[in-house]
Design goal:
Number of helices: 2
CATH topology: Metal Binding Protein, Guanine Nucleotide Exchange Factor, Chain A
Helix content: 25-40%
CATH class: Mainly Beta
Structural class: alpha+beta
Distance between the termini: 97 Å
Strand content: 15-25%
CATH architecture: Beta Complex
Largest sheet: 6 strands, antiparallel
Oligomer: single chain
Shape: elongated
Bound molecules: zinc ion
Number of strands: 9
């Protein structure tokens, strides 16, 4: 029996593998070339404006982190005023929409018009609606459909992402 056909088969399988890998690498590079401008646009919308942000604030605002519940001093804030983005200072919530949800995070029944952009978040196997500051792209929290007022919304916001400015 000759070894020729076996060697040929072996060589063919190697060539096939190389071809397949080449296609894979080639395909990925085409895909990343197509997606590059979008990636750039997405990262361009998220920018650190406040240079004094702490590591914890940056982790929430730019890495979709979450602060520990019942740690925010804003939970007990009852004065009239507005809640601004800790990164870019955009006005996000009025104190009139704030309520005590009992969850341990500052909660609001509605945001000011145009304050946020939303995105579906599938982390931890749950489908949740995540929202970002429409001005700087920083992550703030999640919005749920079980709010107590006629809006039906509950904006669950990390206190570290907000700065409260009283009216008086
Ligand atoms: Zn912002």
């Amino acid at each position: 029996m000759s070894i020729g056909p076996i060697v040929k088969l072996f060589l063919n399988s190697i060539i096939l593998k190389v071809k397949r890998n080449f296609l894979k690498i080639f395909g990925i590079s085409i895909l990343s070339t197509i997606l590059f401008p979008y990636k750039f646009l997405y990262s361009a919308t998220k920018k650190i404006i406040n240079k004094n942000l702490t590591i914890e604030q940056k982790n929430i605002l730019f890495n979709e982190g979450t602060e520990r519940p019942f740690t925010s001093s804003l939970l007990y804030e009852k004065r009239e005023g507005f809640y601004h983005c800790a990164n870019c200072d955009k006005k996000l919530f009025s104190s009139r929409s704030k309520f005590d949800s009992g969850t341990g995070w500052p909660s609001f029944t509605e945001a000011l018009p145009g304050a946020f952009k939303t995105k579906i978040d599938y982390t931890f196997g749950m489908k949740r609606v995540e929202y970002h500051c429409s001005n700087c792209g920083a992550h703030h929290g999640h919005v749920f459909e079980d709010g107590p007022s006629e809006t039906g919304k509950r904006f669950c916001n990390n206190g570290l992402c907000l700065i409260f400015k009283p009216i008086n």
